[in-house]
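User: Predict structure, ligand NAP.
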Amino acid sequence: MPFDNLIAGEWIAGPQRGQNRNPSDTADLIGEYAQADAAQLDAAVAAAQAAFPAWSTGSIQARSDALDRIGAEILARREELGVLLAREEGKTRPEAIGEVTRSGQIFKFFAGECLRLSGETLPSVRTGVGVDITREPMGVVGLITPWNFPIAIPAWKIAPALAFGNCVVFKPADLVPGSAWTLAEIIHRSGIPSGVFNLVMGRGSVIGDPLVQHPGIAALSFTGSVEVGRRIALQCAERGAKVQLEMGGKNPQVVLDDADLAQAVELCVQSAFFSTGQRCTASSRLIVTEGIHDRFVAAMRERMAGLRVGDALHAGTDVGPAASEAQLAQDLRYIDIAREEGATLAAGGGAAQCHSGSGKTGFFVTPTLLTDTTPAMRINREEVFGPVASVIRVKDYDEALAVANDTPFGLSAGIATSSLRHAVHFKRHAQSGMVMVNLPTAGVDYHVPFGGRKASSYGPREQGRYAQEFFTTVKTAYTLA
Ligand code: NAP
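Assistant: Predicted complex:
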């Protein structure tokens, strides 16, 4: 079956095709995927508009059943979809299966949520009048996703969009169309009417930009870089479309003198290097108080020496490749920048060979630890998006908190400590959307809100029941009985 766009319930070839290649083995061609043009985007929006009246007012039982079927199929096929995801994005097979599992759980969660959309009834200040507050779907929503979570981020946008009665035009990242296409195929067979869900694949500059600017798109949910997100926010504001942005991070992980050293090392390794550091919630600034600093660095080096970099599908691989040649180049560039700024290379530091020794050509990079860094260095201010973490030595908790908050970003912040007082203070004063105590900054539940502050996020939160803030609009109705 060719990997075509899904428009109005039909599989439609694009004017061009793009190659999807395996970053662990660039000789491995996963498939050729359609790339849509502006005319196909228009057709997808028109199909969604035509489907909206019936879908938005139809049976919520039918919606719930369809979402449940989608979730069940994803879960039943988690191994197969996990292999596809690992092959196209480069996270390890267990990580990829975990992402697929989470995606299935998200659809099942929203199968329930669409039955729980509640409103309010209040007395009016005017005698004999009643006031009802209800939520209605936005209309046709545009969804644009990045390459680092090829199925989970699409799932956490598509599931609530459909659950609350919206129709969807979905543009996945051009680098990883395989998981998105497979998800679309599952949704297509779920019993959802034609046109309710549409997939248009292709480059952001070719169809992402016209999707954002399309007058038929009432709301736009984007996850990706700050640079693209900010431009999208301006474009949406200009035409009055609702917008939700999830963007980058430069997440701090504080390690205090009283931390359990082994636990602190494990959670830092997990959140800084697993998934090749390609998570918006990855810890990239390890802020360590001076009493534990040297022991922490020594233990990190020892633990990192045991990490195996290699083919994402190979058993025993801890860290897969960078997702693309461009991302590998960015990782290496930032390591150079840090060293030029005066950082010390404590571990890693360059392009790597695949540990299986297969000789495969992939975008492998060694997990890298930089010490002797200061908060003002570029390595501590800009997102690398690779397995690169820097250590900042601080005097005490107060300085650690100040450094943790000294960033343009505010997605996730962690603290490793056995002090209840510091844990409670940090939860209240970390300037981030998510706080982790004795847990990695990356790794979240699917049924609670996800998002950040400052440059990391803009607009209502995603996931959990808070997802309804973006995917619905509130109506206040007055009735004189
Ligand atoms: P990106 O370059 O901003 O791309 C994100 C998406 O936007 C892709 O689908 C891209 O299409 C599309 N796009 C590019 N230019 C566009 C335009 N002018 N108009 C409309 N759409 C456009 O980001 P990325 O490199 O894929 O992802 C990495 C970034 O995502 C990192 O900064 C990371 O922190 C962030 N991220 C944030 C979260 C979060 O929830 N906060 C989660 C994951 C990732 P193409 O694929 O064609 O470029």
